[in-house]
Records
---
Amino acid sequence: MVIARSAFAAALVFVGADLAAQSQPVPAGQSPATQPAQRPAPIPRAAPSTRATVEVQVDRRWSECAWNNELSTSGPARIAIDYGQPHLRGRNVIGMPGVVPWDSVWRTGANMSTQLTAEVDLTIGNTFIPRGIYTLFSLPTRTGWKLIVSKQVLQWGTDYDPAQDFARIDLRARTLAEPLESLTFWLVPARENPPSTAFPHGLLKLAWGNLELSTDWRVGH
């Protein structure tokens, strides 16, 4: 009984001390403990660059040394360029350090690398490109531009390895009368009608600002 009374008395002392502590005035300059203020929800933002794709479809696929009808395989063959699309935003970007500097390899796009998908063998300029997936870079100089076809794929756009170069192809250049706001690629097929026996071919173009670059492409050699 004495032990029980002692325990009960100790509990009363503990509770009383706790209540006394809670009733003490807060010293000047201090504030009572409060829950941390909740941060406002972040506002969604659009990425400064967009993503775009240009594509040509060929109604035959090369298989077992012959051109097959698209209905007998998995559909038409694709020639496609997928690229990040930067925008001028009032800048003069050609030759601009950190954007398109002279004499430095440029990703020729934004963010992830620019990808060429060729489901048929191609010739770009005068260079034969076996069907496959490649990365496109470019080398801008004051005396001319080159398109770089790289065997390295799916890397960040600035991760360039010259050891992976497959080809460097000269590009034609011309000045545009009006600047183009967004980097744009085109694969323009030439129109061929029977009885022409020419394989699909056309023009590969890219332009940004006041500059347009181009070369020719064709299926096969």
---
Amino acid sequence: MESEATKEKMAERMRRTKQSFDEIRAETQAKARRAVRITNNYAHDHPWRVVGTAAAMAFVIGLLMRKSPRKIIVRKVGDAPVLKVKRVKPRGSAWEAITAFMPIALFAAKTAMAARNKNAEQTADTVALP
């Protein structure tokens, strides 16, 4: 008797917990969808601002990552591994700069073409309406 009541009580708690998790998941998904929709609309309305922000963030992250280039070497001496940290001499060539900048330039060109097409469609819509 007592074990059946306990089992029923546990089953009820499990059901309520599952229901509350489902509600939390649904709320979180709705909030995420709303955030994605708002971000998408903003990116389409202000493409150059988004491109500029992304480029600035990439530049800052690149500077932070470049600050202390190091190479970790692991060697085995006898039975024990030895870690050695070695400074790497910066080697920057023009080709590396071009290849690093190319994805940003392509993204900016694609965004510019999309903005131009959107402006052309809006102009065509306003011309078509009397």
---
Amino acid sequence: MQWFKHDTDAATDAKIKKLVMRYGADGYAIYFHCIELIVGNVSEHNITFELEHDAEIIADNLKIQGTSDTSPVDRVNQIMRYIVSLGLFEENNGHIFCYKILKRLDSSMTSSAKMRAIITSAKQSHDKVMISHDSVMQEENRIDEKREEEKRKETPDKPAKSPKHKHGEYKHVLLTSDEYLRLCEEWGEPELLRMIKELDEGIEAKGYKYKNHNLAIREWKKNSRGTPIPKHSLKEAPKCPKCGKKLSALFCDNCMIQFNSQLEEL
């Protein structure tokens, strides 16, 4: 596909605003660049809506700038994780998809008769799913509920486990999204990335094995001689040095500035 529809008020969408509040122009650019890459690969032979480009390519395409604590590739990966957590993209087995793009396609976007037929057929199927007959949806929900109930009976004492994501250059550090965000809130993301790097390299070099990497990285932090944890109470968020407003994940949504753990501008 050569083009897609882009709303002029896209920046006012609540999820997009959250993305910009946390990552500024980088978040906005990466999100829509990924959509461009996905749509650019849509063809008669490819309607998977999968992002086939990795963080290294995206960082190079947009010339994303890193910091002393974060490489450009790591920053892209951070932003992509947040985009998925907002529900703007979907993740399946490490692959990124954007099925919402189908709503933006129509037959006027291509001169290929075959491609027009594919788009029309795909949209009809999509619409049927989205507005599907209540009886079908109820039956699917009933089946899903039954499966969940059977799982609970099989493992009544074990809550459902959140998927763990690989971090670090060697991909040894495994953390759930909740664990990652909680550590970000406690230490600040630059310090968390430093500790991930230390643990990841330690596992690679020494072959250390841990059952729980969330606990392991906290133990490593206690023994670390690197950057100290910011001396801010966890009950009171640090304030912006410029306007005095409380920071969220070291980001000032009033000044639109991201700070590091020492409250220096990034």
